[in-house]
Amino acid sequence: MGDRAKTAAGAAGGVPAADRPSAVRNVVLVGHSGSGKTRLVEALARTAGAVGRAGRVEDGGTVSDHDGIERRHHRSVQLSLVPVDWDGCRINLLDTPGYADFVGELRAGLRAADAALFVVSAAQEADAVAASTRAAWEECAAVGTPRAIVVTHLDTARTGFAELTEVCAGLFGHDDPDAVLPLYLPVRGAEGADGRAPVTGLAGLLSERVLDYSTGVRREEPPDGRRAELVAGARARLIEGIIAESEDESLMDRYLGGGPIDPETLVGDLEKAVARGAFHPVLAAAPAADGGAQGLGTVELLELITRGFPSPLEHEPRAVTAPDGSDRPPVVCDPGGPLVAEVVKTASDPYVGRISLVRVFSGTLRPEETVHVCGRGPAGRREGSRGDRDLHEADDRTGALTSPFGGRQRPVTHCVAGDLVCVARLGHAESGDTVSDRDDPLLMEPWPLPEPLLPLAVRARGRADEDRLSQGLARLVAEDPALRLEQNPDTGQTVLWCLGEAHQEVALERLREHHGVRVDAVPYEVALRETFGGASSGRGRHVKQSGGHGQYAVCEIDVEPLPPGSGIEFVDEVVGGAVPRPFVASVEKGVRAQAARGIVTGHPLVDVRVTLRDGKAHSVDSSDAAFQTAGALALREAAAGVPVRLLEPVDEVEVLVPDEYVGPVMSDLSGRRGRVVGTDRAGPGRTLVRAEVPEAGITRYAVDLRSVSHGTGRFGRTYARHEPMPPHLAEKIRERAGKSS
After folding, report:
1. Fewer CB near the terminus (10 Å): N or C of the chain?
2. pLDDT tens per residue across span 677-729
3. How far apart are CA 498 and CA 452, in angstroms?
């Protein structure tokens, strides 16, 4: 055992691991969908004794079944917590979704963890490591997060372990491929009837021992001659890689000179290099066979976590401010310090209300105490947005604290700095919020959220659902801040902006099942506009006499088009009092009301100047309502004399892709009636494509770009202006409007 493990496991005077930050390990599992993350978590929990049998994804949950925090569907799309104890350490395993649509959950897990396990499946082709996995690796590299790689599905492998290790070294260790090396090699048994040789054990490159898992329980054996020859080359390369990262500069000289090197020295240097994020070991793992207590490689993986991954004490102090933005000293991981915690995830449960998964960074969190909750809403957390937007804060009272254990919840009396806990009834908290002392409120800058760019228009199915829809949507966005809610004033639609199609499906399912709101998805409408194609005049005459008080109003107007963005301009040029002054304002009201309703297709009329030049009034029968009606009639008559053009919104789009996809992306944008306006270099091997594209052509671009770029592209969009729609497309919309009227 190295010095770091001794610090965690020894000299604690019997203090439980959960009360010692030095004995806590927070580890996030990252990998593409189907890589085996959840099965690996279950195997680790089983080896550590947290569950009595292997869980199954098909059962509808994982070992982290917690009120709302877990995923209750056949696909895991939510962050979940699974704590286990091993070798005197508390290990918090954070299982993240593998779908690219749920990168918000992934980023929450990265924020809560101090180290990461990247899970790669050997059952896929060598070049099939998902772009989202590579992007997460780069995010970890940017902040120096320690990382290791776990290879799964070796028994159904399409790619050999050695080949996949080389692929990972090329993808993840492009700056230093020798920093991505295996610690163990898989050992296969005899071929079965299907011609496959199952993986039954591991050959340790440093220990030079064979770890046999064929019986379901790990046994150490000395290697035979054939296996010793197989591992010799890999062992030499591993030793060289460890020495290259060693802080002892004399070690390389001794190695090159043929001098002996103590294995404990190598192990100690390996642990330090892993903790610094300078070396990334590759391991193999698999769930235990039926009846087995320990899955292949799970003991080695747990040892790496406890001995190689850092504790929260080794993390840099966290930057904080006061809620008003004034500077405050950074906080360190000290159970006796001021309370600073962060809400990693929130969810609603029909029985206990809101549940929050919280990471404590400083101080000690206890149940039934009043705390201060402060944070930025989603609008202030989007990538590229201003950080001072959408601040909210309130005092709140914590409910019961629990920690998941198998399928049950284990009450806890407190949670110290460095640990994670589930908190009930923290009613005002949203994902990313800071929880601190009521008398000393602090704010941590939350992790950035990706911009959701795939619209989902929803409509309540019945009157009772209309009443519940707004509350359900508010809760949905609080639970998943990667969603953005919009009430579109132009189309009147309620729109949920999502990250992808799977994100849309899950949002609808949560609305229906968790919040009891029956909703339907309806086609998303682009906010079109109408404008005049030339100058015209119109006369509005509203005269009615049916006995008693009548209605009398006549107005004559000129209409001329204005430059884009001008809106509606109203000018009064009446002379001689033909239209009394109070009724001039009535004409303007009628004109603006009709413009808002549209003329031909029901879309608002914009960018015209309306000049009132004459009219007639009656001393008794004229009224405000009559002149409003006359103004609307005059505008419709003026529109009948000229073409009414349809304007569509055009967005400025920036697409970031690897160089090999620039051509396909530019061709695809052109097919969407886009105009490419330029390209810029955006780092090694990446290009930023700038274009202007009609919004109607990119409503599904969040999905289509993944197909064009094989999941490697990202894009952003901002509204630029409205432009005339091509005549053949405008005619189709006019025909539809005519049929529906």
Report:
1. C
2. 999 999 889 999 999 999 999 999 999 999 999 989 999 999 999 999 999 99
3. 5
The b-or-e profile of 175-200 (16+ CB within 10 A means b, else e) is: eeeebbbbbbbbbeeeeeeeeeebbb
- Judge whether 307 and 1 are in contact, CB under 8 Å: yes
Residue reference for tokens 């892993």:
274
- Extract the tokens encoding 617: 């009034």
Q: At 544, is the secondary structure helix, strand, or coil?
A: strand
CA triple 580-583-585, angle to 5 deg: 125
Report the residue count for the chain: 741
- Rounded to the nearest 10 degrees, how much is the dihedral formed by the CA atoms of 254, 259, 260, 264? 0
> Rounded to whole angstroms, how far apart are CA atoms 96 and 99?
9
Burial call 308-320: b when 16+ CB within 10 Å, e when fewer: bbbbbbebeebeb
Burial letters for 476-510: b for 16+ Cβ neighbours within 10 Å, e otherwise? Answer: bbbbbbbbbeeeeeeeebbbbbbbbbbbbbbbbeb
The whole-angstrom separation of Cα 351 and Cα 457 is 30
Adjacency order of strands within the sheet including 147-152: 80-86, 89-95, 24-30, 115-121, 147-152, 280-284, 180-182
Nearest C-alpha neighbor of 495 from the set 467, 453, 448: 453
> Distance between CA 548 and CA 507 in Å, rounded?
58
Q: Burial level of 59, CB count in 10 A (0-12/13-18/19+)? A: exposed
Residue (of 393, 377, 637, 562) closest to 481 by Cα position: 377
> What is the C-alpha to C-alpha distance for residues 640 and 287, in angstroms, rounded to an integer?
74
Phi, psi for 418 (deg, rounded to 5): 100, -20
What is the spatial distance between Cα 615 and Cα 579, in angstroms, rounded to a whole number? 5
For residues 41 and 76, the answer to whether their CB atoms sit within 8 Å is no
The 8-class DSSP code of residue 487 comes to E
Adjacent-strand bridge partners of 716: 654
Cα distances (Å, whole numbers) of residue 706 to 170, 504, 703: 22, 16, 6
Residue 7 has pLDDT above 50, yes or no: no
Q: How far apart are CA 135 and CA 141, in angstroms?
A: 10
- The residue ranges of DSSP E strands in 350-390, in sequence order, are 353-362, 364-365, 370-376
Summarize pLDDT for 354-390 with one digit per residue, the tens.
899 999 999 999 999 999 999 987 765 666 554 445 7
Q: Helix 463-479 vs helix 501-513: angle between axes, to the nearest 10 degrees? A: 120
> Phi then psi for 629, rounded to 5 degrees?
-65, -40
Query: What is the enclosing helix (H) or strand (E) of 467?
Result: helix 463-479
> Token pair of 395, please?
């005092």
Tokens representing 585 are: 């304002």
Structure tokens at 360: 């404590």
Question: Which has the closest alpha carbon to 372: 447, 298, 436, 304?
Answer: 436
Cα torsion 474, 480, 481, 483 to 10°: value is -80
pLDDT at 55 exceeding the cut of 70: no
DSSP per residue, 70-112: S--SSS--S-EEEEEEETTEEEEEEE---SGGGHHHHHHHHHH
Residue with tokens 């296996």: 227
